[in-house]
From TrEMBL:
Cofactors named for this entry: Zn(2+)
Enzyme Commission designation: 3.4.24.-
Note describing how the cofactor binds: Binds 1 zinc ion per subunit.
Enzyme class: hydrolase
One GO term (biological process): proteolysis
Boundaries of every Peptidase M12A domain copy: 125-152
GO molecular function: metal ion binding; metalloendopeptidase activity
Keywords: Hydrolase, Metal-binding, Metalloprotease, Protease, Zinc
Name of the protein: Metalloendopeptidase
């Protein structure tokens, strides 16, 4: 996987953080790509003829506020761009998999604040986004998720505001709720975070402009690093860690016969699970 940093100044601040996230994967995979580790994944920063790393963008053209600039003509367009998030809030984000439908520069990216704390919970967030770059999608967006978790859209930040604006635009309350919880393009139109929690339609996620097929060939994995925890996108973030009514996602608790007997808070999965590791070895075999 080739990658570059937006600028050399960005590289100085983000390099170690990026690799802390990547190394969570490599440790769980048993090391670098080899017959022993059973995978073929590797990251390679793009270097110039002078032996120095190349920036993604022509020096002096990158605008951090707009998160864009003039792409380096010597940089392959498919390179994963490591971009700085210019605001301190909002966490991290990344593109999912290798995009073949369009060929614009920086279509593959990982973005986080260059000075984000290096505490374990933040680094696992980078590892989560690295999983997206590998092509992994959210575990909680599988079509069978309702057998294992409960998603509470009403607890998500901005949900009430998005619902009110949709109703003001002429949608009935029932239709607005349904589309905010099932229609990705509709949710994005109203700046709702609900698109990150929706189930696939016809086995696909991503909306009309960017579709992804959901791999459900293996059992649902409650330990996956690609599973959101109860605080993700919660309106009341701190409360969601302990109060189920404020949680965006809850785990179904079941008796020995598999009957639902209640729900519980989902804590962050701090490292890739055995299922995540198996996914990598299955899709990137040595």
């Amino acid at each position: 996987i080739p990658y570059c940093f937006a600028t050399m100044e960005v590289r100085e601040r983000m390099f170690c953080r990026l690799w802390l996230g990547i190394n969570l994967w490599m440790q769980r995979l048993g090391g670098a790509a080899s017959a022993y580790s059973g995978h073929s994944l590797a990251f390679q920063e793009i270097y110039g003829y002078n032996g120095n790393p190349m920036p993604c963008f022509v020096p002096g053209t990158f605008n951090a506020a707009e998160e864009d600039g003039q792409w380096n003509p010597s940089m392959p367009a498919h390179t994963v761009a490591i971009l700085p998030k210019h605001t301190t809030g909002g966490g991290v984000s990344a593109s999912a998999g290798y995009k073949v439908a369009h060929w614009d520069e920086a279509r593959h990216f990982i973005m986080f604040h260059p000075d984000m704390p290096t505490e374990p919970r933040r680094i696992r967030s980078i590892a989560h986004e690295v999983g997206h770059v590998f092509g992994m999608l959210h575990e909680h967006q599988r079509s069978d998720r309702d057998n294992y978790i409960e998603v509470q859209f009403f607890a998500m930040k901005g949900y009430d505001d998005a619902l009110a604006r949709a109703i003001a635009d002429g949608h009935s309350q029932a239709d607005a709720k349904r589309r905010l919880e099932q229609d990705e393009d509709f949710a994005r139109h109203y700046d709702a975070v609900t698109d990150q929690f929706m189930k696939p339609v016809g086995g696909k996620l991503g909306g009309l402009s960017d579709e992804y097929f959901v791999d459900e060939s293996q059992p649902f994995d409650l330990d996956s690093i690609m599973l959101y925890n109860s605080q993700n996108s919660a309106e009341y973030f701190q409360s969601a860690a302990i109060n189920m009514e404020d949680a965006t996602i809850l785990k179904w608790e079941k008796d020995h016969q598999g009957n639902r007997i209640g729900t519980s808070i989902i804590k962050p999965n701090m490292v890739p699970s055995a299922g995540d590791v198996a996914w990598i070895r299955r899709n990137y075999p040595w």
